[in-house]
Model the fold of this input.
Amino acid sequence: MAGKIKIAVVGGGLAGLAATMKIAEAGYEVDLLSVVPVKRSHSVCAQGGINGAVNTKGEGDSPAKHFDDTVYGGDFLANQPPVQKMCEMAPSIIYLFDRMGVPFSRTKEGLLDFRRFGGTLHHRTAFAGASTGQQLLYALDEQVRRFETDGKVNKFEGWEMLSLVLDDHQVCRGLIAMNLQTLELKEFSADAVIMATGGPGLIFGKSTNSMVCTGSAVSACYQQGAKYANGEFIQVHPTSIPGEDKLRLMSESARGEGGRVWVPRNTDDKRNPKDIPETERQYFLEEKYPAYGNLVPRDIATREIFQVCIEGHGVGGENQVYLDLTHIPAETLDRKLGAILEIYEMFVGDDPRHVPMRIFPGVHYSMGGLWVDFEQRTNIPGLFAAGECDYSIHGANRLGANSLVSCVYGGFVAAPNAIDYAKNVERKNTETNGVHATELRRQQEINLQIIKNKGSENQYKLHEEMGKWMTDNVTVVRYNDRLKATDEKLLELQDRFKRISINDSNLWATQAVPHARQLKNMLELARVITLGALQRDESRGAHYKPDFPNRDDERFLKTTIAEWSAEEPILSYEAVDIGLIEPRKRDYSKGGKKEGKQPQETLRLAEQAAASGLPVKEGADQIREGGYDQKPENLSGAKIWSQEKGELIDPETEAETRVQQGKDIDAAGGKQTDER
Amino acid sequence: MSEANGHKEKPRLTNPPKTIDFRISRRERLGAQQYTETFEIPYRKNLNVISALMEIRKNPVTKEGKQTTPPVWDMNCLEQVCGICTMVIDGRVRQSCSALVDDLLIGSGGNTITLEPMSKFPNVRDLQVDRTRMFNHLKQVQAWVELDGTHDLGAGPTMTQAVQQERYAYSRCMTCGCCLEACPQYHDDNYIGPQAIAQARYQNMHPTGKSTIDERLNGLMGEDGITNCGNAQNCVQVCPMSIPLTRAIYETNRDITFNALFGWLRK
Ligand SMILES: Cc1cc2nc3c(=O)[nH]c(=O)nc-3n(C[C@H](O)[C@H](O)[C@H](O)COP(=O)(O)OP(=O)(O)OC[C@H]3O[C@@H](n4cnc5c(N)ncnc54)[C@H](O)[C@@H]3O)c2cc1C
Ligand code: SF4
Ligand code: SF4
Ligand code: FES
Done:
């Protein structure tokens, strides 16, 4: 072995840059490939912030609680050990970004400020204005540029990865990529490859994702034998702004800063929203979930908004509800949410400081992705994955602001493991036995085929059709008959794909060839998502079937694994590692979010924390004896919004009101979703 | 932004045309001849330039009925935060994803919208340009904080809200190139330009970043350096992120003067 090792990182979002930085810092050479210049990666879109239990507000927050919130928010579908590791690492990740110069929002004292996000009762989210992802990505971009200047990183921007190079033993030896200007194909041999290519939002046509988020590269790996896990878990963001070209996100921080979701009680109410008195507005989230109010986790918020609209109670009977910030002073809004309000103003034309915004749910995030073990290794030796393109952290549902931290964590774990692997892998004669050339030729032929094809189908129309079917049938509410019909549709589209003809005779910098290739890969992944959903006869996290409204741990507390075959994805199920926190019912409408075996569980957590050498912070206890239901030592920070006038009240009183109101809802016939 | 009393509504297009003409600059490849083609699409509400381009791309036939190649342009975030989709629209450089058709029609009073690539960068094809040089400018000014390492070393330096807010303003630069396109002094990459100066300023303001201020200023003192600025202030006017560019130029000049005067004292 010995000698120089070379690692290829595919994707320059947060995960890819995090991995690249670590590898370069360790002194090894990296080829970094990205479709767009890395500074323009999708991660710039993240607005709300990044989670880490730094506990600056004296709320007794701790990594253990972050861990619990994440696992609970993910409806127990995530393997727990990596989640725990991530939550332990999170505070140091935030500090590192702070040292790299990210202009995080500050307290008066000059310390990092934190805000509260969905799915937690703690102020745990560090943020830089309302464009956190942009600043985090830029900080990594700057560091990687430093290493590039030192010759450690070779950037290949404007190159699209097409496939892996596998040797006869299915070991990854590098990859093939295409230059998007010249359509030149090139082999990148590498001792290890890290995939960090982000999410697959474009499978749903319009989503909140950026236009490079096709999932195409990951689909290519899947078609070459990589396992794809939990594909059916697609998060739909409760609050997006419907647009012609995409769905623009209205960050959850709009709810975090006190935004209230409502519809007129009377659907025919044509009045200007400002003229509708409080009593004639239905704040449906606050009514149903008094403790969390507008901050219920996003899957619940999404379904409630979706439900209200499909029952015909949306504003003006259309698919939209109000997200109202007008009760908050404009300066506060500008300071805390400036960037996202500008987005709304820019793309809709109304000023959300004075007019309630109109929003509707939009496809946002894929919890599913390449299967990885706890060291970010896929099942293909030499292939690693990190970031949104792996499945590991978020289970059945991702909590707000948990993705950025999981991307960086994934990159930080993948990097040393890839180095280790690359140092030890046997290379034999892979350089000379022609596997690279063979794969290059195979990809060349696919290109030629696409260019040669002359049929009557239009690739962009096929894409639209796929998007519409997937959005209508495989998002918020899923029915088995419609899922079956969708799969049939996908098969039909795959067939019609063979008859597309690219409408660009100029192959220089053409977008038609790359798009055709992406479309083919998206169709493959769409089937994984659809069939995974079809087989999972339960409701869990973001996956909701009215015909199977309950979580079924007996049958489905399992990771869905899809493996490619020429006919259809082969699905199997793998047990979830739930050794640290025992699954409990996920119910944000009740008093605490804790029920049942709380004390034992807390004890186990405490032992776990002690054993793992969790740093014990000064101030409030990290783990309270007797569970979280106990009164916190310091109430000053642990305030939550009251559903009344948006004023702050303490959680004790809140819990009681909420339990009472929860009972009222139950008495009034209850709602199915309360049971979940 | 918001006004103290009541809110200002944007003017609305009251009398939309039936169809819109897009006059699009075409170029087959780097170095090839530039020409123009016009595409007609039906008016719809809520169109932006990108959705119009998407519509054209689906079936690229010119207004005269000639089958042609689809126009090529760059896009990614569609939220005006990645900077990739920048082009010259009706003579003004801006992001095409945030250019609403209604606003453009109100602005011009007609039913034609003109799309051209930025003129100061190599034109790859149609509306696509290559801005690699802007990233090289960032290397030249060492626009990063020099770290001891990325291992866990605890929290960063404390910072007042005022400094944080000032830095935040600079941190939003998305390397879109509008400022260079508009700067009368910038052509043939003769001048490093306001983007890089502002990013140098951004790093110089950071308590740790300060320690390498000399290297950064050095990057700005060459032939292509800060002295090229003629203070025309076009850059601030076109910057979509409202980066305080002229302030950065002023303050950096001040730092350079200070360094020239007192630099030897520190040696
Ligand atoms: C609007 C919006 C707001 C969000 N807000 C938050 C938030 O507040 N907090 C939070 O935690 N999360 C948030 N998220 C989620 C989070 O932004 C993403 O999950 C995260 O940025 C993904 O990062 P990544 O590194 O995995 O991939 P990305 O940033 O998507 O990067 C993917 C990279 O892969 C490259 N790539 C793709 N395919 C190929 C290929 N074939 N060949 C070569 N390169 C390729 C791309 O060029 C890009 O560089 C938000 C998401 C959206 C859509
Ligand atoms: S300074 Fe403004 S105009 Fe110039 S590149 Fe940055 S964001 Fe664009
Ligand atoms: S102020 Fe300087 S940098 Fe800005 S446009 Fe004018 S000459 Fe160019
Ligand atoms: S597409 Fe990102 S700025 Fe327009």
